[in-house]
Amino acid sequence: MKVLISGASIAGPALAYWLTRHGFEVTVVERASGIREGGQAVDFRGEVHLTVLERMGVLDEIRAHQTHGGALDLIDADGRTMVGLPAWFTGGEVEIQRGDLARILYERTRDRAEYVFDDSIASLTETGDGVRVTFERGAPRTFDLVVGADGLHSNVRRLAFGEESRFVRDTGHHVAIFDAPNRLGLSGATRVYSEVGRGVSVAPLDGDAKANVMCVFAGDRPAVHHRDTEGQKRVLAEAMAGMGWHADELLRDLADTPYFYMDSVSVVRMDSWTKGRVALLGDAGYGATFGGMGTGLAVVCAYVLAGELAAARGDHAAAFAAYEREIKKFVTACQRVAGGAGPFFAPKSARALRNRTRTYKVLTAGPLLRVLDKLANKAATSIDLKDYETVPAAS
Ligand SMILES: Cc1cc2nc3c(=O)[nH]c(=O)nc-3n(C[C@H](O)[C@H](O)[C@H](O)COP(=O)(O)OP(=O)(O)OC[C@H]3O[C@@H](n4cnc5c(N)ncnc54)[C@H](O)[C@@H]3O)c2cc1C
Fold first, then answer.
1. At 311, is the secondary structure helix, strand, or coil?
2. CA 393 to CA 20: how far, in whole Å?
């Protein structure tokens, strides 16, 4: 079977890995001109995430590239630590820079799958036995199945299911991430400084030579397109202007940063993630983006989708039904824990800000942090993984 995957970030290459291993012929089309670097550290937690990474044979490589930070200090305007959150709580079992993970998954699949960069699907037409696909640049082609792994603003979702506004729910927070020189000379824990409606976090990187800066701010979705990087930088600079601690200094590097990512913190809600010969995977279908363990979710669900397709031996309708059934509880649980990240970094009122700091002081003073950690782990492990590896290769 020929499968076209839209999107080469995390979900796309993870699916390409499993599909090619099961004997499918895979093409991945990515709008960007190459694998997109950047982003902050993403963490994997609990035995489900680790089992899938191990079965993919990438766990050791991920461990070799893991960040050794993870601890997080909530600081006041003078830089004094008010609350310290330990690495085991913030970083999961293994934490890696998003860009490093994307590169590892791409390297593992580039020789087994066809990657087409700088292109995007223009139209999808289902015929009796396939999907006729036209592209913005390349010649039309026909595939047996199409999978949208193209993120929160999924193109495949729009073409096959309908407009984004029907499915994407904004939380009222936005997140921007960029790399900068470590001008503040920080080392050790990530520092988080928050004011009402905005927060900045700085994580030292690469032996403290660089810093990964994350800004979170509250507000309606700005009137700027999600691919207009310069416009987004302007919105960010306005949202963070005049902020205390060293925020202004950190934003000075915004213009020259090699990597910049900004998006609204949103949750995708859909009744079904498949339609005919089209399926959605990762953020495209059930993204809980920032704080929703979206990376672990994408990697695990790629394993399930490929496994069910292999097990159904060409019966995509049966495979898609099984995919939805297998991941439903898992997706719901992960989406439920997603809502907390925006309010944590950028509480919307003075009272919420005070309460946040007070709550975490109490949590870190006793055993309650372990309880909170268990809740996050419970969501990350709320799926019974089948062993699809015993399924013989599809022909
Ligand atoms: C550059 C970048 C930085 C990120 N940084 C962070 C971060 O710091 N923190 C965080 O929590 N999450 C971040 N994310 C999101 C995070 O990667 C996802 O939440 C999670 O890993 C699930 O991944 P995904 O593959 O489903 O979606 P995504 O990672 O969003 O990937 C979608 C991919 O599809 C591509 N694409 C989009 N439209 C089209 C199209 N029309 N045709 C073809 N390809 C298309 C995109 O270029 C991208 O490569 C980032 C995403 C990107 C792309």
1. helix
2. 9
From the CB of 95, is ligand 1 less than 6 Å away? no
CB 104, CB 62: distance < 8 Å: yes
Which residues, in sequence order, are bridge partners of residue 74?
Answer: 83, 192
Residue 151 Cα to ligand 1 midpoint, Å, equals 5
Which residues have a Cβ under 8 Å from the Cβ of 110 and sit 6 or more positions away?
none
Answering whether pTM is above 0.85, one says yes
| Beta-sheet pairing, 25-30 with 2-6 | parallel
**CA 242–ligand 1 middle distance (angstroms):** 30
Domain map (residue ranges) of the chain: 2-390
Q: What is the DSSP string of 191-210?
A: EEEEETTEEEEEEEETTTTE
Contact 244, 193 (CB under 8 A): yes
Q: Is there a contact between 141 and 133 (Cβ–Cβ < 8 Å)? A: yes
Q: Find all residues with CB under 8 Å of 51, minimum gap 6, and list them.
A: 385
The model's pLDDT over 122-169, given as tens digits with 9 standing for 90+, comes to 999 999 899 999 999 999 999 999 999 999 999 999 999 999 999 999
Predicted confidence (pLDDT) per residue in 71-108, tens digit:
899 999 999 999 998 887 777 788 898 999 999 999 99
Tens digit of each residue's pLDDT (9 = 90 or more) over 183-224 = 899 988 999 999 999 999 999 887 788 899 999 999 988 888
Nearest to 298 by CA among 4, 63, 16: 16
Which atom of ligand 1 is closest in space to residue 297's alpha carbon? Answer: 22
The strand pairing partners of 202, in sequence order, are 191, 213
CA distance 177 to 212: 7
> Which residue, 35, 37, 10, 39, is CA-closest to 212?
39
Burial 303-327, CB ≥16 within 10 A → b, else e: bbbbbbbbbbeeebeebbebbbebb
- Return the CATH architecture of domain 2-390: 3-Layer(bba) Sandwich (3.50)
Helix pair 316-336, 368-380: axis angle to 10 deg:
170
* Cα(342)–Cα(339) distance, integer angstroms: 7
Q: Which atom of ligand 1 is least distant from the CA of 10?
A: 25
